Fold this protein.
Amino acid sequence: MPSLKQLSINLATLREQWDLRQAVEGCARHGIRAVAPWRDQIAKVGLTESACVLRDNGMRVTGLCRGGMFPAPTEAGRQAALDDNRRALEEAVALGAECLVLVVGGLPGDSRDIAGARRMVEDGIGKLLEAARPAGMPLAIEPLHPMYAADRACVNTLRQALDLCDRLGEGAGVAVDVYHLWWDPELEAQIARAGEGGRLLAYHICDWLVPTRDLLLDRGMMGDGVIELPRIRGWMERAGYGGLHEVEIFSAEDWWMRDPEEVLQTCIARHGSAT
Ligand code: ZN
């Protein structure tokens, strides 16, 4: 059984109810010792203030969400994306985050060239690594479900992300998010491969509802859907993953509408019973 010590809350889970300070203090009240904030949440409160709030509450930061979105139709656009990623990297360092999560981006502009988009992603991460390595900040490439290939991420399987890591070298790893990867028949083998290469940087959990009414904003609470969470956790553990289990739920019509205290209580209970 997973323990409370292994639980982290991705603050997207509470984004409609609470700002960063409220969310961190709420998690602390419930005995949760780790969170993963989003950059817009940090920006609203301010970087220095956010770092204080996290430190004062003794929070581990299991990741900063997010960098990425590398492809752009023009050289200037790609440079702007890289500059923004360098700022994200600095923020991750200032917050003491364990990694910077990358949602790599989809097709630029009106392009139909997905292979070209993937080259832009590889080039962008390669350049970002030149700053990330000396800063000691791992970059966690998060493969997204292929339904997002056009508009959010053209890296869509763990195998593809790990192939990218192999080419990029030191400092690149992966975030395994069950919402995006649960269906993949290669998942067990690719998690093992990631473990061998020391590439497992983060583990994001929620559940896949049937039916899923909105492909972005209808993620389920652990135990309410069809993902075999204990089995996937077992694969992660066998691969040597010793990090936390980060609950990340985007849920416009359900969990974002509920009392945040109830959301946290449910996260804790389900983390213990259903993951
Ligand atoms: Zn995720």
